Amino acid sequence: MVKIVTFGEVLLRFSKSESLRLQQGNTMDAHFGGSEANAAVSLALLGNEVRYVTRLPQNAMGTACMLKLREMGLDTRHICWGGERIGTYFFEQAAALRPPRIVYDRKGSAFYDLEPGMIPWHEVFRDVDVFHCSGITCALSQSAADATFEAVETADKMGLTIACDINYRKNLWNYGAKAAEVLPRLMQHADIIFGDTTEWELASGQPRIPFEATASDYPVDGEAYTRMFEKIAAKFPRCQKFILGLRNELSANHHLLSGVLYNREQLFTTRVYDINPVVDPMGVGDAYLAAYLHAHLHRHESDQLCLDFSLAASTLKSTISGDFNLSTESEVLELRDSLLY
User: Fold this and answer.
1) 161-165 and 29-33 as β-strands: parallel, antiparallel, unpaired?
2) Among candidates 311, 215, 197, which has minimal Cα distance to 254?
3) Which single residue of 13, 24, 269, 307 could bond 20 by disulfide (Cβ 3.0 to 4.6 Å)?
4) Residue 254 has pLDDT above 60, yes or no
5) CA–CA dist 325, 328 (Å, integer)
6) Residue 181, φ and ψ in degrees, nearest 5
7) Cα 313–Cα 316–Cα 196 angle in degrees, nearest 5
8) Distances in Å between the alpha carbon of 86 and those of 50, 72, 82, 135?
9) Could you report the per-residue pLDDT of 56-82, keeping only the tens digit for each?
10) Model confidence over 13-55: pLDDT tens digits?
């Protein structure tokens, strides 16, 4: 069985119900999540053996988080214990034409203070095939960025396949480093890279191609994306799979999704999914990349079918409340195969 290690900060997400603003009401819903944890849970629910590596405080909240990760099927034996608190964020749901709002509270969290040498990477990567990392861990602090590069360099030396989610979060880059310099360095280690239009533009310098779908018959410009990724591929010679997620938000609850994959020889596009209503937009990209990794590593299908599987999974996540995609492989296949063109 393919074994996968994912690495990142688990967050506690607080949000108001019924599209209330943060200053309204007296109660909040709470969910554990975070991009890398979302991807790990998706991979586990699709049937993969997943080790999740993070740093948690040795208190009741850290224990609650660890138990939730175990409940979702993750191997948590390599969690690093220490620090004072778990990171949090506050999420205000979009409504009609009002955009969503996120307020992070991550500075000084257990993961924020992670340093190189705290995690025994050679032990973590023993008998492992794939390492999934994210640009978010490089955005938090210099020490967390250094620990991330320690991880990818060790995985590289041990011969693992490395999958990288660019995951640019502009509000997190506050410690002096520049995302446009750090993220491309991380991507140089990757065999598979995921990103949205903004992230690929930041990391590669190639102008984004607008995705302006308003209906499912929108034509994705394959020739333009081919030209773009031919230039990007020259900058990242190790990478073999360049994957782009496309989303156009017509309103808070009406999104259109599509995707692009370039394998250095050919470009693949998929249908446009018209999702109305969207139940929860958080974790949609994480579901997309996790589904691709699962399909690529286990199903041994064509790039086209793997991409179609990814889009079906992210579409289903749009209908599920919370950060985690709770869809099974059979549910994703049922949607994918019912709509194949």
Assistant:
1) unpaired
2) 215
3) 24
4) yes
5) 9
6) -100, -40
7) 60
8) 22, 19, 10, 19
9) 999 999 999 999 999 999 999 999 999
10) 998 887 888 889 889 989 999 999 999 999 999 999 999 999 9
Full-model pTM: 0.95
What is the tens place of the pLDDT at every residue in 260-301?
999 999 999 999 999 999 998 989 999 999 999 999 998 888
Q: HEC states along the chain?
A: CCEEEEECCCEEEEECCCCCCCCCCCCCEEEEECHHHHHHHHHHHCCCEEEEECEECCCHHHHHHHHHHHHCCCECCCCEECCCCCEEEEEECCECCECCEEEEECCCCCCCCCCCCCCCHHHHCCCCCEEEEECHHHHHCHHHHHHHHHHHHHHHHCCCEEEEECCCCHHHCCCCCCHHHHHHHHHCCCCEEEEEHHHHHHHHCCCCCCCCCCCCCCCCCHHHHHHHHHHHHHHCCCCCEEEEEEEEEEECCEEEEEEEEECCCCEEECCCEEECCCCCCCCHHHHHHHHHHHHHHHHCCCHHHHHHHHHHHHHHHCCCCCCCCCCCHHHHHHHHHHCCC
Sign (positive/negative) of CA torsion 19, 21, 22, 27? negative
Assess contact for 61 and 91: CB atoms under 8 A: no
Confidence at 97, pLDDT banded by 50, 70, 90: confident
Structure tokens given for 37 = 């944890």
pLDDT beyond 60 at 248: yes
What are the Cα distances from residue 318, in Å, to 24, 136, 191, 256, 281? Answer: 25, 22, 27, 10, 5
> CB neighbours of 229 closer than 8 A, spacing ≥ 6?
242, 260, 262, 267
For 117, half-sphere exposure in the C-beta direction (CA atoms, 13 angstrom radius) is 2
210 pLDDT above the threshold of 80: yes
CA atoms of 46 and 102, how far apart (whole Å): 29
Q: Are strands 29-33 and 11-15 parallel, antiparallel or unpaired?
A: antiparallel
Of 234, 324, 245, 248, nearest to 282 by C-alpha is 324
Q: Give the residue among 79, 72, 32 at the shortest CA–CA distance from 56.
A: 79
Q: Cis peptide before 99, with omega less than 30 degrees from 0?
A: no
Token readout for 45 is: 């629910």
